[in-house]
Amino acid sequence: MDTVGLADFLRRRRETLQPGDVGLIDGPRRRTRGLRREEVAGLAGMSTDYYTRLEQQRGPQPSQQMAAALARALRLSLDERDHLFSLIGHNVPARFLRSEHVSPALMRVLDRLDDTPALVLSDLADALVQNPLAVALLGDQTRHTGLARSAYYRWFTDPAERTHYPEEDHPRQSRIQAAALRAALTADRRHPRAAQIVAELCERSPEFVRVWERHEVAKRFEDHKTLIHSELGRIDVDCQVMFADNRAQTLLIMTTRPGTESHGKLQLLSVIGHQQFTH
User: Fold this and answer.
1) Are 6 and 54 in contact (CB under 8 A)?
2) Residues 107-151: pLDDT tens digits?
3) CA–CA separation, 125 vs 137, rounded Å?
4) Bridge-partner residues for 100, per DSSP?
5) pTM of the predicted model as reported, rounded to 2 decimal places
6) Cα 195 to Cα 218: distance, rounded to the nearest angstrom
7) CA 62 to chain centre
8) Assuming Cys at both sites, which of 120, 152, 223, 262 could form a disulfide with 236, CB separation 3.0 to 4.6 Å?
């Protein structure tokens, strides 16, 4: 790891960003040029002490996952992300269809969405980043590991995944999930993970096998869906999507129609956030 080069690169990239660039409020008496260290650390999901040690040339080597988180936090371009990985001492991620690096253009839009749930998904339905309201509505979708990072995989293996949808919608959702997984498999057969998900689901889920045999293929996002919140109940949302240039990542935005009961529930959710409901 090039500790000197990494420290300088992190500091200079941090100093080029303003709070508004990453969805933060620029409060009074800001003496630091650019973002503060604790702000970058928070955006990357690491401790302030750990990030500070990196800038002071005395931190341990970040993992590849942490390097990707730093790249997202600092809104790096692909070229800058590759340079960051090289400084840290990791192989530069291949620039084929799938990537953990979220498009800066999608991140800029996401940063400005503070009153409606939004998240960035890979073509395998990995949640790469969520805004706070999406976490409040759906839970932390980025916490999963292994094959379970894919919502397609979880749909057929984890009963908790289905609690977000009304039971009467489950058969249709199963077809949607399988069709989208086939589209992802078709898009890049060089990458083994999609094939691994399919093989594992064929072993574990008879329902998946039945749906998979329909041979449906479509990367689709519903215009309208009903979600179930554990405390607020049914919430009807309209869905809008934005694709990255290579269509490997999607920004999914969920809105509610003003004046409806669902709109009121979403407003309540935006106020209380992660706080526990009182009964």
Assistant:
1) yes
2) 889 989 988 999 999 989 999 999 999 999 999 999 999 999 999
3) 17
4) none
5) 0.68
6) 17
7) 20
8) 262
